[in-house]
Amino acid sequence: MTAESTESEESRASARSVMLQGLRVIWVAVRAEPGVFTGAVLASALYGAMTVASSWALGWATDHAVLPAFGGDGGDGGDGGGAATGALLLAALFIVGVAVFKAAGVMGRRILAGIMQYRMQARSRREVTRQYLRLPLSWHHRHPTGQLLSNANSDVEAAWGPLAPLPMAVGVIVMLVTAAVAIVLVDPVLALVGFLIFPAVALLNLVYQRRLSPLAMRAQQLRAEVSEVAHESFDGALVVKTLGREDAETTRFQARADELRDANIAVGRVRGLFDPLLEALPTLGVLAVLLVGAARLKAGSVATGDLVQVAYLFTLLAWPIRALGWVLAELPRSVVGWSRVREVLDATGSMTYGAAALDGDGPARVTAENVRYGYDPASPVLKGVSFRIEPGRTTAVVGQTGSGKSTLTQLLARLIDPDHGAMRIDGTDLREVARGGVSGAVALVPQQTFLFDDTVRGNITLGLDVPDEKIWAALRLAQAEGFVSALPSGLDTRVGERGATLSGGQRQRLALARALVREPRLLILDDATSSVDPQVEKRILHGLREESAESTVVVVAYRMATIALADEVAYLEHGTVADHGPHDELLARCEGYRALVTAYQREEAERSALDEAVAEAVDEAVDTDEEVVA
Amino acid sequence: MTAVDETGGETLRAAERTAVETIRHGLRLSPEFRRGLAGTLALAVLATIGKIIVPVAVQQVIDRGLRGGTPDVPFIRNAVLLCALAVLLTALCGYLMNVRLYRSTESGLATLRGKGFRHVHDLSVLTQNTERRGALVSRVTGDVDQISAFMQWGGLTVIIALGQLVVATVLMAVYSWQLTLLVWVCFLPVMFALPRFQRMVSRAYTKVRERAGDVLAAVSESVVGSAVIRAYGSEDRTAERIDRAVNGQRRAQTRAQMIIGFTFPTTELVAAVAIAAVIILGVHLGVAGSITQGRLIAFLFLITLFISPLQTATEVLNEAQNAIAGWRRVLGVLDTPADVADPADGVTLPRGPISVAFERVGFAYPGGPPVLHDVSVELTPGTRMAVVGETGSGKTTFAKLLTRLMDPTSGRILVDGVDLREVRFSSLRERIVMVPQDGFLFDASLADNIRFGRPSASDEEIRLALTELGLADWLEGLPAGLGTPVGQRGESLSAGERQLVALARAYLADPDLLLLDEATSAVDPATEVRLARALDGVTRGRTAVSIAHRLSTAEAADEVLVFQHGRIVQRGPHAELVEQDGVYADLHASWASAIGS
């Protein structure tokens, strides 16, 4: 999936000019932060103008302070050293004064450009993560975790990367225009040199960018792929180890790393060629100025100071002019980053909410009406599930591996919406319930426990205002009171990332307490006690049985003990509810159900029958032997 | 995603090397960096010398070409042409230097990535688990990228900048020692202040990285915990958390930028002061006849050579510090001993049923109390052994020791009479395969995942393996059969189905000892019983150990090992143990009531 989407991204990116798209991305930022952008550009323009002014100041100093002192031929005064002192001081003040303004421009540009870049990054991160929270779970299922993380991190960073050098680039343009005007004012012939050099620099930059962008994009892509392989491989480290596949995995990773190396070297070739050329061009300009200037000097059209001014200007331009190149170099990354961010922002299918409330009191009535759902629409997991659960009843959902039990629990909690049909609580279609309504009435304990990097209390209340007594009551019911009170800071103990400091069984019990503390009207347990010892599980289930009169309970279960605690059973087969009713009735009338839940008992019965048969055979043999002996 | 995970790196050997030691050690590990380094440096020196072409040209033109009022055009033309040639040669040197630099550094870094990656896999499960995954990934991605960025930009800038200062100073000294002294006096305070600036900047950036780590953690919770967040309607709370982290990061970034913004332009001011001072003093010297006007003007050009190295210095130093920190972290991974290592002259075990002997084996997690005490047990070849006990009784530790995912802290384990620590890894992994409870799958097709057990297996062999395990019906029911994509971590399949694939994968590997660690805990009873029967058949002639949470497995086994509090408390066939008073009888009673028989 990732490979496909990047291919389409690449082709899209190359189809239209990267530059145009890059400018469009920049335009987004300019529109979002017009004030900061204007400030940064103004500061940058000040910097640009002052750079030109500083060369002018130097030229002025040459003509009015230096050459007269040397008794030179240039300026107006020719009367030796002493008289120039005033001009000398003036020149010095002039140079320092220009530098003060230039420094102010640099400072403003840097700070404002930073503020703009970071604001845009923060804004995109907020938007992207809001979208993660808004988009339905089915969307999350389709997108790899690693991709979503890099969308919110490195892609956002890449998208707004060009904002840092952008004002500088705009300032450089101002600088170039001012410089061109300044040179024309000095001497139109000398200006010709400038008019040859500046467009050449611009052209070179353009060629540079065009050559670089596909290579840089590829390198960026490969960087992401290297990271994805590492992520997956380290996640599966146990499997890699137990099957001794370290070499094969290293080969797989090294292949990607080598591709990245080659891509980076390819980028390096282009950079390595164009960077020195871009530096050489203004230098050649200075030399051309000297050559042409000498001729003009001979013709008496310019003064030595003018020559110094123009040459100095070219020297000053050599460095900033490359800022144009930086922006251009950042553009391809920015375009790819932004298109990946946009993909998240443009994703549709957010759940819609109605206005209905589930504010009934006491346990909920649950109905499924011909519910269809498929991760792949061509082969739905649930093909028309209908059932009705009366308030306060406990229903066990039983079915084969892969029969859609977990999917059903997610539909009940409205983590996903049915493709067809409806899930109702108290007769209200879940899609019509107001935002927050379903989660206020329904609590799901999923098969895979998830804890936040927070305290035990935070993980249980999730921000809800719950008194400690209620938390302890929930923990007691979840059989977690013992280990929580033994934790160093009790309820205020932090559980670490994903609850890393706790065992699997402890995590499950906290997740259970999280559901119980809400006193939900519908409690859904999706194999939520799988990591808990049978004895502890038994205590939990008995406790639930006694306390849960206020809840309707749906529990996905295999174990007979759990099923026996349920009032009724919904048996899933081939994507539909094959039978629904009390356990005893189903056992009597539904063959599939019987085969499933009595598998262990039958196995045991067969084995003991076999054992008995063997024992009898042995006995008989012994008897025969004895007879023979007798 | 880059470089935000350093907080997680504590458990790896955080080798507190100095910068120099890090570089020396790093260069030893990546000899590619030094390949052709002399040539590259020579080219860098040439490229640096090219920087003085302009000042020299200006000086020559003014002092010699413009002497006596009328420009000496032929001289100027020759001088300019010569300089232009030098400029082109300089550019060529720059190009060659860049290409060589990119080639050698990227080759070295690709090798470093590979070595780091391999070493992470070689680390024991203990180290792997105590590390944050993201941190380990950073070691072979972001950290290396940082080194790469520095070597290609910063490293070069340092060399050229230093060269630039040296070359400029030498030329200035040739022109006038008094003015050279003056320029240095102007710039010295800046140079002294630089390390201070750099420390401020570095502190600010450390803060930025910490905040970036907060953002990453907050964002990842919103992605990984998406189901729970929705189920409990805590979207707003999560959004607030993310906002806090994102704003914290923005504030830290802005602060860092402010510091740079205020310090960066100082050099501009100092340069202007230097130029003004040079003009004043230069004119006085000129009047005294100790400097020519061309040299004085060339001086002004030379001062510009001082600015850029000093301006970039803070950033380069900062980047250097990051790169060295990154390098240190990568080397830290490589330095962390693979405490469960492949023996140098390992024994290759012949194929065939395997015997196992635990001799007074004890184990404790680092810094923890012992979890296994003095365990001695023998498994004869071909035994099918079930291991039972409550959570935390030591079953899984037993399994991890038997597969040598960890080494015992005392005692030893023998397979076919050979100490496990002396068996070659390739042989060990071929003969002993464990199926862990959480069957991790790779984002590939079903067939590819099963083939992970034996890369050479054909689709037919995979299908046959599934049939032998009694899973042919299940395969039939999948939309695209063997080609079914399993999704990230296999999440397109249900938890039970993932376990089926993991089991098939291990079975295809055809081990002599198969170890199942609650490998079918999420599978429905009917399928599990079918699987158990199939396994019964296919493990005939092999040694099999299954850690069971359903005691039906124990009933079918030849023998049962009962663990309690890290000790084996009972051992024998089910029929015997169930008759004795003890742990097993209790476990069995509660199991029997759970299944309702």
Automatic annotation (TrEMBL), chain A:
Q: Which UniProt keywords apply?
A: ATP-binding, Cell inner membrane, Cell membrane, Membrane, Nucleotide-binding, Transmembrane, Transmembrane helix, Transport
Membrane-crossing residue ranges in chain numbering: 36-61, 81-101, 163-183, 189-208, 277-297
Name assigned to this protein: Multidrug ABC transporter ATP-binding protein
Q: One Pfam family, short name please? A: ABC_membrane
Write out the similarity annotation: Belongs to the ABC transporter superfamily. Siderophore-Fe(3+) uptake transporter (SIUT) (TC 3.A.1.21) family.
* GO MF assignments: ABC-type transporter activity; ATP binding; ATP hydrolysis activity; ATPase-coupled lipid transmembrane transporter activity
Location(s), subcellular: Cell inner membrane
Which residue numbers delimit the ABC transmembrane type-1 domain? 39-333
Q: Which InterPro entries match?
A: AAA+_ATPase, ABC1_TM_dom, ABC1_TM_sf, ABC_transporter-like_ATP-bd, ABC_transporter-like_CS, P-loop_NTPase, Type_1_exporter
The source's domain of life comes to Bacteria
List each copy of the ABC transporter domain by range. Answer: 366-599
Question: Which membrane topology describes this protein?
Answer: Multi-pass membrane protein
Classification of source organism: Bacteria, Bacillati, Actinomycetota, Actinomycetes, Streptosporangiales
Please give the GO cellular component terms listed in this UniProt entry: plasma membrane
List the source organism.
Sphaerimonospora thailandensis
UniProtKB/TrEMBL annotation, chain B:
Q: Where are the transmembrane segments?
A: 37-58, 78-97, 153-175, 181-197, 259-281, 287-307
* UniProt-annotated location(s): Cell membrane
Q: Which UniProt keywords apply?
A: ATP-binding, Cell inner membrane, Cell membrane, Membrane, Nucleotide-binding, Transmembrane, Transmembrane helix, Transport
Q: Which residues form the ABC transporter domain?
A: 356-590
Domain of life of the source: Bacteria
As given in the record, the signal peptide range reads none
Mind telling me which GO cellular component terms the entry cites? plasma membrane
Q: Boundaries of each ABC transmembrane type-1 domain copy?
A: 38-322
Q: Which is an annotated GO molecular function term of this record?
A: ATP binding
Broad class of the protein's primary localization: membrane
User: What is the membrane topology listed in the Swiss-Prot or TrEMBL record?
Assistant: Multi-pass membrane protein
Q: What is this protein called?
A: Multidrug ABC transporter ATP-binding protein
Source lineage: Bacteria, Bacillati, Actinomycetota, Actinomycetes, Streptosporangiales
